[in-house]
Amino acid sequence: MMKDKDLTQTIVGSPIYMAPEVLKGNFYDSRADVWSFGVVLFQMLYGFCPYEEHTIPKLIDAIDKNVLKFPMETVISDPMK
Asked: Where residue 61 sits, what CATH number does that domain have?
């Protein structure tokens, strides 16, 4: 039987909300949850996910290479960003 800590080695959920280290199959910790929360918050504020691709390799590539852009038409305070 696995220990609770060992669950950090599993992948469960929608890839668009996953931290890069989870998508890459690397070890991860609670900071991956902060990433996921940020993706959900971005989606709540702007109405779309910051990174969306059709495959996991393309999603990883987009996260690694693309700078996050905040849409100018939606006014969000700097502290919220």
From this structure: 1.10.510.10
Q: Compute the residue count for the chain.
A: 81
Counting other chains too, the contacts that 19-27 makes at CB distance below 8 Å and 24 or more residues apart are: 20/60, 20/63, 20/64, 23/56, 23/59, 23/60, 23/63, 24/60
Q: Model pTM?
A: 0.76
> Is the Cα torsion angle 63, 18, 52, 49 positive or negative in sign?
negative
pLDDT category at 76 given cuts 50, 70, 90 is confident
Range of the domain at 33: 14-81
d(CA 14, CA 27): 18
